[in-house]
Amino acid sequence: MSRKHALIVGTATHQDVSYPTLPSVRADIHFLGQVLEMPAVGGYEKCSRVEDSPKAAVKQAVEGFLSAREPDELVVVYLSGHGAYDREDGQLYFVTTDTEAGRERQTALEAAFVIDQLEKCAARRKVLLLDCCFSGSAVQGFRSKGAPATAAPPVVEAGGVHVITASQHWEKAFTTDADQPSQFTRAIVEGLHSGRADLDGDGQISANDLFRHLSRDLQKAPDGRRQTPTQSTLSVTGDPMQLQHITTLQPRQEAEAHRGAGLRASWLDEHRLEHRRYSSFHAAAHAAGETLLLDEHFRCHPDIVGIANRHCYGGRLTVLTDPRSLRRIDGVDAVQWPDVTGTARRGHNGSWLNQDEADRVHLSVERLLKRLPHGSTVGVVTPFRAQKDLIAGRWQHEPRVRVGTVHTFQGGQQDVILLSLVASDRMRPSAVNWLSREVNLWNVAITRARSHLIVFGDRDFWSVRPGMPHALLDAAEAKGGLPSHGVHPEHSDEDVGDRLQYLLTDEIPGILIDRNAVVDGYPYDFDVRHGSKSVRIRLDHGASTGAEAARHLRLALGRTALLPNGVRVPAWQVWDGRTERMVGRLDN
């Protein structure tokens, strides 16, 4: 049995003659329903169709259709017809057969009702397609679906729902001949039927695939009939790698609250709503079905955030920090590990401290305050409260220095972070294991440092133990720097590099070339020197399959701009033998 269902709603005729007839709406319903029901194309169950019906009937159909859905189903709701916007209440209304102009609030179907029903729907995958607009007038024989041009548009949003609309608010959503669907619906039907909407070639057409196809198709419309589709969706934006919330609620208290509210623990767990175990991020991410990682990083030196990127984010971050904006000490590595062979012992509050590390931290802070540029700040971070108390007293009257546990620094940043690990052979194994495996804690601690991260610990102790402290030690000992994304850019295509090296050496006698170099934490393909001039080259092999070309170009240009005298060279220029830009840089 298919797990895909669609409700197709269209209104072509109206009792109130203020709304022009839209004969193409019937074609919209026919052709879209047909392609969705084709076993080899859409594979949907028989689509539910609601044509030329009054408000009450449409409302009943929407509510009944969505309430019958199951969590593992895909739901599509499509509406075609006139849209009206009420300025006073800020609501969008769908015009039905019995809607009266000027009384839309009382007689038209509220978009808010449709959105509310979609959000309540149990299906986790929901798509809303709106073939209507909010300005209407006859244009060269083509009618538009919408209200008068003076109406200002609302923003249509729905939690957990992917919304695709036919046009921007200032554009018309054009109909066509009576026996043909509108421009928007025609593009949907043709994209699905031909498979051209499967832009990433994975055999499936996602909502994002469909939107990108619609955008490209509708751009080809003749002047005077162009429209720009829009999309929106619930974006759950957050970072699950930050510290978890702290709660004082006891398991017994939570269980009693569950029983008092008549809620099953299994249901709360399924929906990520248990207070002690989950945060609001987990609940929202589960409801939406996907999350958006803010994957462009601009705060930390590449060598610092590179540690978190490799070990916490799986290399998904794009690092774009400009090292020239950082307050730092020239010639000093971004990540350092001063070896301190100290002894961990219990403090008065039962927490752990290490006097030798504290003494070394004090000495480093004094030196940093003398050497750092004016206005720089220093943070001392430690996982243990007793160590924090041991260090904090010394610096309580120094405004440039902040001392605390990792939780103290969440949401903040310092130019330099000194990280005291405390642990030694005297520490209980359970405490060491906790320290090693708390990835979220280390991610926050590491990424508070903008310019320098200085880790104090026993090198021999941590070198034989897995976990993030070991990763920090490896990063500090990687003298040449590590690419922030784990591999060298475009490393897979050596042929292009070999050809570029041949072209440059043939073009410029006496040129010196180093390949796969790193500067300020950023890898690049060629360091080219001729006399006193130098150029740093990044090869650009183009966007990968499925990637957005515009975003790829923006990031490629941004990465190149971070290189002193950097040049982006598209691979096609190399194959075409073009070296003018590089030679020109060296000549000038």
Approximate helicity band: 25-40%
How many domains, in number, for the residues?
A: 4
Task: Provide the CATH top-level class of the largest domain.
Answer: Alpha Beta
Q: Assign an overall shape.
A: flat
Q: Rg to the nearest angstrom?
A: 31 Å
CATH architecture of the largest domain: 3-Layer(aba) Sandwich
Extract low-pLDDT stretches. Answer: 134-144, 147-159, 479-492
Largest sheet features: 6 strands, mixed
Q: Which strand-content bin applies to the residues?
A: 15-25%
- Distinct helical segment count: 21
Spatial order of the strands forming the largest sheet: 2-1-3-7-8-9
Structural class: alpha/beta
Indicate the CATH topology of the largest domain: Rossmann fold
Distance between the termini: 69 Å
**Total strands:** 22
| Mean pLDDT over all positions | 84
Q: Short description, anyone?
A:
With 588 residues, this protein is α/β, with parallel strands linked by helices.
Describe the protein's topology:
Layout: E1 4-10, H1 24-37, E2 48-51, H2 55-67, E3 74-80, E4 83-86, E5 91-94, H3 104-107, E6 109-110, H4 111-120, E7 125-131, E8 162-165, H5 183-194, H6 207-218, E9 230-232, H7 251-261, H8 265-270, H9 280-288, E10 296-297, H10 302-311, E11 318-319, E12 335-336, E13 345-346, E14 352-353, H11 355-371, E15 378-381, H12 385-392, E16 401-404, H13 406-409, E17 414-420, H14 429-437, H15 439-446, E18 449-456, H16 459-463, H17 468-477, H18 494-507, E19 512-519, E20 522-530, E21 533-540, H19 549-561, E22 566-570, H20 571-575, H21 580-587
Parallel strand pairs: 1-2, 1-3, 3-7, 7-8, 10-11, 12-18, 15-16, 15-17, 17-18, 21-22
Antiparallel strand pairs: 4-5, 5-6, 8-9, 13-14, 19-20, 20-21
